[in-house]
Amino acid sequence: MPGHPQGRILLLEHVGAKSGIRRTSPLMYVADGATVAVAASKAGQPEHPGWYHNLLAHPETTIELGGEVRAVRARVADEAERDRLWPRFVAMVPDFEFYQRRAASRTIPVVILEPR
């Protein structure tokens, strides 16, 4: 597939905020030093994806990246971090720009996954 971001997918483990059920979601990511960032785009839908709400409730989790499991703590990027990282998501996958337009008044959050 032309333009496919090879190697830019991680597996995010998350526990249901209400259900307590453990789930895994494949997500595109941007590397940022020792951290990685993911965008809660849900393809521009009006609400945040379930995994985002789950991370707010249970921020300590793991990701699998290149066959390596890493313990991380999730936090929502502040405005300056989002402003710095968002163009990197758009450069990787131009559809992210469409997703933000489609989301209208919902600013798509960027979630930072820091090593713990």
The largest pleated sheet is described as: 6 strands, antiparallel, barrel
Ends apart, CA distance between termini: 35 Å
Instruction: Tell me what portion of residues adopts beta-strand conformation.
Output: 35-45%
Strand order of the largest sheet: 1-2-3-6-5-4
Class by SSE composition? alpha+beta
The stretches of 5 or more residues where confidence is low (pLDDT under 50) are 1-6
| Number of E strands | 6
Element string (H = helix, E = strand): EEEHEEHHE
Shape: globular
Radius of gyration: 14 Å
What percentage of residues falls in helices of 4 or more residues? 25-40%
- Mean pLDDT, all residues: 93
| Total of DSSP H or I helical runs spanning 4+ residues | 3
Question: Could you explain the architecture of this structure?
Answer:
With 116 residues, this protein is of the alpha+beta class. Strand 2 and strand 3 form a beta hairpin. The protein has helices at 50-57, 79-92, 95-103, and strands spanning 9-15, 22-32, 35-39, 60-65, 68-76, 110-115. A six-stranded antiparallel barrel has the order 1-2-3-6-5-4. Helix content is 27%, strand content 38%. The model is unreliable at 1-6 (pLDDT under 50).
